[in-house]
Design brief:
Order of helices and strands: EHHEHEHEHHEHEHEHEHH
Oligomer: single chain
CATH topology: TIM Barrel
CATH class: Alpha Beta
CATH architecture: Alpha-Beta Barrel
Structural class: alpha/beta
Strand content: 15-25%
Number of domains: 1
Strand order of the largest sheet: 1-2-3-4-5-6-7-8
Shape: globular
Length: about 290
């Protein structure tokens, strides 16, 4: 057994692609990921089809996932109460994910709401999650800086994190490096400050990076106490609302390499993972 949780994110990998991935291709790919032994699969989102057209078939994909023989849990991203209600209609979904930005500009761009309005949304989504036996995963977007000139420092992130826990009881929070600006120092500083201060919160790392830096930032987060990591095979994807040039996701294979090199048990079946790696090459443009 391991206390390490790896969240594979095909949703994040797919969402920014211009060409629509056929629904059956998505189903085949996510079903392969369900065999790998990841703690959670971030598989889709219940958001406006106009905003993210790639994921307009999330409900259809969900209905054809082979969940009976998988230990992985399912996470869906929502951007408002309506999306949360849609997601709550599916018993198979365990987690609702909401992107809460500490950058006012990015919150407007990403969810068409101010930070204050988003707090109201978080409260409503949290209530729906509780009523429907689901858990809220809150992403602290732009958690390591932003390109818009909005004020950022670690104290701002810490204050929001503490408020979201104390006022709204958000117990899973993922620090999100939306544009790939996190440094070893900033990763260590934030996790070392937050984890002891809020021991009842499960903190995660949703880091966007280039391949060359992947292992270094995984090491920094793990050494600082983080045990929840988001990633996507080959580092595909990124946030279409962040910048014009997508910064890639944390490459799952690089992360697994670092864990294996350091004898840290991941729970991932390497044979099935290699099968998913091969399949990914036919799903995503290179």
């Amino acid at each position: 057994m391991t206390d390490l949780k790896i969240i594979e994110c095909p949703r994040d990998a797919m969402q920014g692609l211009h060409d629509f991935i056929p629904t059956e291709t998505k189903i085949q790919y996510i079903n392969s990921l369900l065999k790998c032994g990841f703690d959670t699969i971030d598989f889709g989102s219940f958001v406006s089809a106009k905003a993210i057209p790639q994921l307009r078939d999330t409900a259809e994909v969900l209905n054809k996932l082979e969940l009976n023989n998988s230990t992985s849990k399912l996470l869906a991203i929502v951007a408002n109460e309506r999306g949360a209600q849609d997601a709550c209609n599916f018993q198979e979904i365990q987690y609702l994910g909401f992107p809460f930005s500490v950058s006012e500009t990015f919150q407007e761009r990403n969810t068409n709401s101010s930070i204050e309005e988003s707090l109201i949304r978080v409260e409503a989504i949290q209530n729906l999650a509780i009523q429907n036996n689901k858990e809220l995963v809150l992403y602290l977007s732009m958690g390591f800086g932003n390109p818009y000139g909005d004020e950022w420092n670690s104290d701002i992130v810490i204050q929001w994190s503490e408020l979201l826990y104390s006022k709204l009881d958000v117990k899973i929070q993922a620090l999100s490096d939306t544009i790939g600006v996190a440094t070893i120092d900033s990763i260590e500083q934030l996790f070392k400050a937050l984890i002891p201060a809020l021991p009842n919160v499960e903190f995660g790392a949703h880091l966007h990076t280039v391949q060359e830096k992947a292992k270094d930032i995984v090491k920094a987060a793990y050494s600082a106490g983080c045990r929840r990591f988001d990633s996507a095979i080959k580092g595909f994807g990124g946030c279409p609302m962040a910048t014009d040039d997508l910064t890639g996701n944390m490459p799952t294979e690089k992360m697994l390499e670092w864990f294996n090199e350091n004898n840290i048990h991941t729970g991932v079946n390497h044979t099935e993972f290699n099968n998913s790696m091969s399949l990914a090459l036919s799903v995503f443009p290179n």
